[in-house]
Amino acid sequence: MRTRFAPSPTGYIHIGNVRSAIYPYLLAKQSADGKFILRIEDTDRARYVEGATELIEDTLEWLGLNWDEGPLVGGPHTPYFQSERKPIYHLWAKKLIAAGRAYADPTDAKTIDNYRKVCYNEKRPYLYRDFRPENPPEWHEGIPLRFKSDPKPRKWHDEVMGDLEAGPEVQDDIILIKADGMPTYNFAHIVDDAEMDINYICRGVEYLSSVPNYLALYEALDLPVPKFVSLPHILGPTGGKKLGKRDGAKSVTEYRDDGILPEAMLNYLACLGWNDGSEQEIYTKDELIARFSLDRIQTSGARYDETKLLWMNGQWIRRLVDQQGIDEFYPRTLGFWPDAADNFDDAYKKRVLAIIYDRLKTLSDLRDMTTYFFRNPSIDTDMIVQNKFLKKFSIEELSELLQTSAEALTDSAWDEDTLQATLNQLLETTGRKPAELFSLIRLSLSFAPFSPALNLTMSVLGRDLTLARLHQTVTALENL
Question: Which domains, from first to last, does the chain contain?
Fold first, then answer.
């Protein structure tokens, strides 16, 4: 099993690109001697973006999709950059010329455009083979080289789409080598896949229409035809069209910077258009390798759902913390804490993480959800007096409830269990419901829409800070 991922370094690598790497990786790893190859298709120099190759490598490494051959690691089929394989393409091109299956085409762009207009006016499809030059010159770099097609019915099997066929009308004299001497994708990938012994080709369903031309090239070059795996589009959130940048097709590194875990991203994208027939949703990489199969890839497009990705990321945060413990997981949170946390040591931040991790959807949530652990929040009495559980109380009643609570907590031992017992006793003493009393205390301590269990929050904040904030809120209420 030899598979490949062959991206073009023309910009950032978004989630649609990455799924085209995940499936061939899983396939290769199902075989004891399987190989996953990374090849950089950088022949389009006009669209080349500096640093894009490094971004591709970094993204794959982050996801744990380590390649067996390719840039950085080498291999028996080097070089793995198409721009460095130009002599190889020319050798194969000359084989086609010698066999009478390729010709130099000096036709200028204006003439080709006129051919298109003729076909349009005659209401027939434009096929360049209808306008082949009668006496083409000898080919050399500087003149495009075209394939001399032999149109006929083509049939093939796609591992996802099933048995397919196409007529001669979709086969044409495609360009093999451009005027600059570099190959087109249509030619280069066939040569490279053959030289690198790739036997499973995973790529987007948009290439299906080109397969008849590819089959003609395999035939002309006397090459074995690999197995084709056409991956349906990832659709936008509405499901109506292919996911684009405007719909959230961000760079994978942006998701990483937002606090998405690689385990969650890999899990989500692998299941975006595939399932093993069970109700399971959370998979480790090893589980994906064990269970992945081509016959379970759906033939229709899969709708991108960022809400599902965030849910899955939250599941992975909880899973990893529960499995590894706070100490081992904590380094992953570095860089995601609020600025105010810089003044506190790791031990304190681990205590905060321990009581809040089960509410996180992304690691970046730490910035908004933990600030009050590191600095006093701005007192916002409106959050109290407008709270749905508290708005029925007068200012005097709210102030009295807080003072009573502060007095009871002053004499309490400051461990989680005792604090909870003290809070429960306060419910009896005041005759208030948990949603009323606990909401009042929670808001007074955090002035945030969310905080962990009250006894846990107070335990981490400490006695002095907890009591100080309660008294400060009492003062603010009394001054209304």
Answer: 85-231 (3.40.50.620), 381-478 (1.10.10.350)
